[in-house]
Structure formats: C-alpha cells, structure tokens
Amino acid sequence: MLATLIPSLGLGLLSFRLNEALINDNLTRELLSLADFTSRELDLWVNEQIQATSALSTSDIVINRLSVTSQTQADKINISQQDLTQYLRAVHEKLDTVLELTVVDTDGKLIASSADLPAPVVLPQNWPQNASINGIVSKPPHWNKRLSAATLSIAIPVLSYDDFVIGALVTTLDLQSLKPSLKDTTKLPLGDVMLVDAAGNVLLSSHNETNQLVSLDAELLSQLQAQNRKPFTFTSVMQRKVIGLGYIYNKLQLTIIAERDHQEVYAAWINLRNLFLALVSVLILMVTAIALRMGHAIVKPLQDLISATKHIVEGDLDVRLTITRNDELGQLARTFNRMTEELLQKQAKIIANNKAMRQKNKQLEALSVTDGLTGLYNRNKLNMIIADQLARFKRNHRPFAVLMMDVDHFKTLNDNLGHIVGDRILTAVAKILVQSIRSVDFAARYGGDEFIIILTENTVNEALNTAERIRSQVAESLHGPDEKKITITLSIGIVQCEPGDTTSTILLTRADNALYAAKHAGRNQSYCIRPGQAQP
Hints:
51% of the residues lie in helices and 19% in strands. It is an alpha+beta fold.
C-alpha cells in the first residue's frame, strides 16, 4: 500500500503544482487583457473629450467674446464676459462629464467660467507661441480637493478667424464619467481596475462606489511599477488578498492596476486540493490502522519473541510465549516453547552433573590432601600446614607445638595379627586423634604408623597435657583380638617452635628426636624438648 500511495501522492502534488502554474498563466493573460482594455478605453474617452472641447473652442460666441476682450472698451468687455459665462453654464448643464468650463486669454487670465469660483489656470510658458505646434495642453489626472473629485483638465487653444491664438478653453472633466466604460463585464474576464496617480491616490476604481479619496501604499505602488505587467499577490485598498499587476500609462502619468480576488481565483483549486488532502489523510489513517493491526498481529509477537530470547540469553529459562493463533507465528511460538523446555531440561541435567562434579572435585581435593586409610591429612598437606604456621610465628611470635607419635611395636603387631588388623589399629588411633584436638588444630599421618599433631598457639607444657590424654585414651580403648594379652600404646615426642625453625624439616627433625627419646626411655610415654633444651 505504501508503494502505491507514495507515488500517487507525488503525482497528485505534481499535478496540483502544474495546475497552479496553468492558473497563474491564464490569470496573467486575463489581467493584461483587462489592463490593455482599460488603456484603450481611456484613450478613446480622452479623445472624445478633446474633440468635444475642440468643438466648443470653435463656437462663434467663444471666438467673438475673446476677440472683444482684446478691445479697449470696458463696457463691451463686461458685456462679452457675461454673455460668455452664461453660454459656458448652459453648455455645462448639458455635459455630464464636465465639471467646469473656463475661458482664458493667452496669458492665462480668466475671461469667463461656468463655476462661481473657478480655479486659476496655469498655462505653460510660451504657450501662445507654441500652441499651434503643441496642440492640446492637458493637466494630468489628479484629486481636486475643491471639487472633491478626480479630475482631468484639457486646454484647447482658441483661434481667431484669421488663425491667431487669442486664448484657450479649459475643460475640467470628471473621471467618474469614465467608470461605466472602465470594464466591460460581458466581453472581458473577471477582475477590477484602478487608476492611480503618481502620488498613489486612487482616482477611479471599478469596485469603489464612494467618492472619497483612497490612497495606495507607496511601497506597494513602487513594487507594482517596478514589476510592470507582472502579477503578484498583495493586499488591496479594500483590505483583501488579491493578485494583481501594474500597467504604466505614460500618456496621462497614471498607473492602471488590474486585480482579481485571490480566493475567487483559487477557489476551485483550493477545493480540489482540500479534497485531495482529505483523501490522502483518509488513506494515511487507513495505512496507520493497518500498520497498527499488523503491528499487533505480527510485530507484537515478534517483539515478545525477541524479549523472551533476551531472557534466555540472560539465563532465565522459565519464560514462555502465549499461543493464541495457529499460523506461522503460532508455530514459531510453539517451537520456541519446546526449545525452552528442552533447554530447561538440559540445564537441570547440567546443574545435576555440575553438582556431582563439584562433589567429586571436593572428594578429589580431599583425597589429594588426606590419607586414604585414616582420613587424616597426608604428608604434602602437612608440609603446607607447617609452612603456614611458621610464617604466622614469624609475624606474630605466637608459638605452636608439634606432637610426633607412633604405635609401639606396630611392626610386630602387623606381622603377628596381619595387615588388616594393623590397618584397623591405625584407623582407630586416627579417630582418637581427631576427637582429642580442637577445630583449629591439625592431625596428619606422617607415614606408616607415625602421626603428627599441630597444636596452634600452644606451648610445650600445654601440648604435654594433650599428648598424655591421647596416650591414655589409646591405651584404654584399643586392644588386639586377644584383649587379655595385647594393649595398644603410643610413644609421643613433643617440641615447640623456635626462632631457629626456619623450615619444616628442621622442626620435624627436632620432633623426631623427641619421639626417639620417648622410645629409648621405654615407650608408652611422652617426651618433651623444651625451648633452649639440648637435643637428646
């Protein structure tokens, strides 16, 4: 759907852009046609007024009265002016386009006028000499404050019967009379037209029904004149958004402005655009709804699957997916759940195997440091213990005692009673040793029937008490198969660590010497070598 929607949207936008460009081209031609028509109508109207004024300038009463004014008789001059004034007023009443008719002499002096208070007439310099060459002298259209109207003044030279310039007939025309022919709605395209003078005053407008002066913004007028015959959008004097162009009319120093209402021009285009956008919005909503549906139907299960996979990666195998469908995603969820169950089973097996392996490792570790027969520490472990105790003694100077012992006449017992009985005797002795020491002490089988006990933070005197207790317990509780004949006894050598015991060999050698002394003294006894005492 997206693959179809996106190109369609692009083509639609391109079509609207081309349509807008076509509307702009047609509007430009229409506005130019409207401005050209106004320019032609303005030419015709001015020509008509010039012809009418020229006809009046050739009337006998005007020529005669101007000729009389050149005479010296004052009474004749006054009579001529009165007759001429009445004539001008009579003509004025018959002409709707004329606001004033004024006759002046060659110097511009007022001779007669249809107005009670006529405005002064200013003729160009050297006008009498150039009148026959220049022809008509007109004052550009302007806003006449005295008459409160937009006016155009036309001056036509009055010639005597012998073709001498004797004065001028000045016609003040009302531009409002041009309004009916300003725009022909039956022949021309829709739009409005304004005539604006150089000061920005709107002298005539096809849509302005009032006679009040309205001025155009100077910046806007400059822009219209700069972009001569090129339309653009602006705010008109009626405070509405329009599209218009300026047409400079040099003959009368005017700017013709042709404009169309922006909303009116683009109404159909805007409606189509809004309809297109509405359709696109509906399609987008449909695509969004479908995407949400697909997200719920496809993306959501995939997200759940990804989340469950992350849990599995993190070690959580208890996660399960909820199966609510029978399609491919449902099959994938079932396969995932089976996979997690198998992983969980394999994990349980691995944990069980790992636990068993740890137990075996512990057993191996124990076997690596213990004697297989008695369960006491073996000789390797004993060496490590003694090295650790010597290091402690070097740091804190707290003594420890070493007891070295063996079973008296064990070889004879072993030969007479057999190795099995001998092993039982060694096991029983080891059990008594373990029961007779503290948890911080150590018992080890040194080799054969020899045992060693390390009593931490003990002196030789304290160790002697422990040795006697062990010896008595062994003598009282252990007997051979014939209890009346054989009693098991121990010989024990006791030493205390000294600063000179830098290695386990030195310390054990001293303990072995003490054991030898106990045996030499008759066995079944304990012998101590106290600190500073000479070796036996």
